[in-house]
């Protein structure tokens, strides 16, 4: 069956379809960051769980800092800074975390000294997609090897003891989450309980940033978006309505 609509009736129907198709609300994307997080259990020692230091979120607090972490035998850092922001106009989000004067003692008996002047993670989400990167300034990995200051995504070095892999260190770890967001961990140390026994289990993450996906720039069904949408609709509807009224007047005159 064919349905034909003319004049104002057609305009009203199109307007109803436009409003109905637009989402009632479209929350912009989210972003978060933190400087360090630990959850490790060393052999013969109690578990060490340290919540994210200097956590920031696009919903607030958007900026945070921490004087430094000092966990004997595990990790010591200088100042930590983190920030996360949202651009309401574009819907894009950005997050960044930086940790200064890092010293990791967790693996020192196997790898020797691990330190860095600055460990930084960054994540950006726009309407074009998501991107992330890490920067490692003054990195010293001792016996573990070498890694570039701007390592490729998911660069990994294995830590072995007596031929057994007991840990792995991932640089510029990039994780695509199920909700479409991206997490960038500048350094992620994973302790593995080997067949012959390792030094413990757990994770240490240094400088982490998560973002995206980007939200819609302006929700069309509320606020400014609604008035912009109705204004544009009015520009289209006015000539159509005027044409329909003029045609009716011509028919009446005839």
Automatic annotation (TrEMBL):
Alphabetical keyword list: Membrane, Signal, Transmembrane, Transmembrane helix
Residues in the signal sequence: 1-26
Superkingdom, natural source: Bacteria
Residues spanning the membrane: 224-245
This protein's name: Choice-of-anchor P family protein
């Amino acid at each position: 069956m064919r349905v034909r609509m003319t004049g104002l009736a057609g305009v009203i129907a199109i307007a109803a379809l436009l409003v109905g198709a637009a989402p009632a609300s479209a929350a912009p994307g989210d972003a978060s960051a933190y400087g360090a997080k630990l959850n490790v259990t060393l052999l013969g020692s109690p578990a060490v769980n340290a919540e994210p230091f200097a956590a920031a979120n696009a919903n607030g607090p958007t900026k945070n800092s921490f004087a430094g972490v000092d966990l004997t035998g595990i990790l010591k850092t200088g100042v930590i800074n983190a920030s996360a922001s949202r651009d309401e106009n574009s819907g894009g989000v950005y997050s960044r975390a930086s940790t200064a004067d890092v010293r990791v003692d967790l693996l020192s008996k196997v790898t020797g000294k691990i330190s860095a002047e600055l460990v930084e993670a960054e994540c950006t989400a726009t309407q074009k997609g998501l991107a992330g990167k890490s920067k490692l300034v003054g990195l010293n990995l001792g016996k573990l090897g070498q890694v570039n200051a701007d390592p490729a995504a998911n660069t990994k070095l294995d830590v072995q003891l007596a031929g057994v892999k007991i840990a792995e260190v991932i640089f510029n770890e990039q994780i695509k989450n199920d909700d479409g967001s991206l997490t960038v961990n500048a350094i992620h140390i994973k302790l593995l309980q080997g067949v012959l026994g390792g030094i413990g289990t757990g994770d240490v993450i240094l400088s982490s940033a998560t973002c995206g996906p980007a939200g819609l720039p302006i929700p069309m069904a509320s606020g400014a978006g609604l008035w912009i949408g109705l204004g544009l609709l009015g520009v289209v509807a006015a000539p159509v309505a005027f044409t329909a009224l003029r045609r009716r007047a011509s028919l009446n005159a005839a």
